Amino acid sequence: MSLLEVSDISKSFSTGRDFLGRRTGWTHAVQNVSFHLGTGECLAVVGESGAGKSTVGRIVLRLIEPDTGSIAFDGQDVRAATPTQLRALRRGMQMIFQDPHSSLDPRMSILDAVAEPLVVHTGLDRKTRTATVRTLLDKVGIGDRYLARYPAELSGGQLQRVAIARALTLKPKMIVCDEPVAALDVSVRSQVLNLLRDLQEELGLAYLFVCHDLALIEVIADRVLVMAGGRVVESGTVEDIYHNPQQEYTQKLLAAIPVPVPRSARH
Ligand SMILES: Nc1ncnc2c1ncn2[C@@H]1O[C@H](COP(=O)(O)OP(=O)(O)O)[C@@H](O)[C@H]1O
Ligand SMILES: [Mg+2]
C-alpha cells in the first residue's frame, strides 16, 4: 500500500452566476485524476498554468473538498476524517507554497513562525520548542542568527528555507510543494531544490511536487504526472518522461525547456 492513494478525484468551480444567482458556468479544474505516492518518493505534477496542479495538491490536504473521488493517506480515508482525525493527519502532511512572503505572517518572528506548529500540536515547553527550532533552522542552512528577525528582513530564498523548516517541525511523512522555487531568484533556485532533495533523502520524506517547469524536476522527481486541462495526459518515471515522452503535449513541454537536457542523459 502506498503512503498516498488518490483515486478518481474531480473538482469543478462555478465561474459565473446569472441575475437570479443561478450558476451559469463551470471550470472543470480536476477531472478523474488518480495516482499514488510511496514513502520517501517524489512525484512531480507538471503542466501549464491552469492545468489543475494546485487544486490537486489542495484536495490531497483537504484544503479543498473534491466533488468525487477518494484519498487515502497512511491507510486512512482523508475525506471521511473527523476534525480530530484530520488534525492528526495534518501532522503527517505539510505544504510549502510558492511565495514565502505570503505564507509567513509578517508580524511573527522567525522563531515564533517555525515554533507555531509545535505550540498548536504538541505540549512541548518554550525551551524545548526553541531548541527544536534552532536544530531545524540549522538543518535548512539558516542557522540561528535570524531567530528574532521578521520575514521582511530576510531574502526570498532565506524565507523559503524558513517555510521548509516550519513544514518539518511535526516530522511529516509527506510535503506538498506547490511551485516552491518559482518565486525565487534564478540564482537560488537550485540551492533550494538541492536542499529539498537532501532533506528528502535524510528524512525519508515523500513529496508531491507541483511544478510548471519540467526543467526543474529532473534532480528531484522519481515519477512524473503530466496534467493538462484538469486531466492526467501522461505519467511515468522521470526517465520515461524525459527520454521517451509518448504524448505530444509532453513533447511540447519538453521542447519548451530553454536549456537542453544533457546529451549524456539522452539515448
Ligand atoms: N477557487 C477557485 N475558484 C474558481 N476557479 C478556480 C479556483 N481555483 C482554481 N480555479 C480554476 O481551476 C483551474 C485549475 O487551477 P489550478 O489548480 O490553480 O491550476 P495550476 O496550479 O495548474 O495552475 C484554472 O482554470 C483555475 O482558474
Ligand atoms: Mg498552481
What can you tell me about this protein's structure?
The chain is globular. The chain has helices at residues 53-60, 83-92, 100-103, 110-121, 126-139, 156-168, 186-203, 238-243, 248-255, and strands at residues 4-17, 23-37, 42-46, 68-73, 76-77, 93-96, 174-178, 206-211, 223-228, 231-237. It has one domain (4-103, 173-265): 3-Layer(aba) Sandwich (Rossmann fold). The longest helix has 18 residues, at 186-203. The model has no long low-confidence stretch (mean pLDDT 93). The two termini are 33 Å apart. Helices cover 35% and strands 26% of the residues. Helix 4 runs parallel beside helix 6. It contains 9 helices and 10 strands. By secondary structure, it is α/β, with parallel strands linked by helices. The strands form 2 sheets. The protein has a 6-stranded mixed β-sheet, sandwiched between helices. Strands 2-1-4-5 form a 4-stranded antiparallel β-sheet. Bound molecules: adenosine-5'-diphosphate and magnesium ion (MG). Adenosine-5'-diphosphate (ADP) binds next to strand 2 and helix 1.
List the main descriptive attributes of the protein structure presented here.
four-stranded antiparallel sheet; 267 residues; alpha/beta; Rossmann fold; binds adenosine-5'-diphosphate; six-stranded mixed sheet; binds magnesium ion; nucleotide-binding
Q: What is shown here, in short?
A:
GO terms for molecular function: ATP binding; ATP hydrolysis activity. By secondary structure, the protein is an alpha/beta fold.
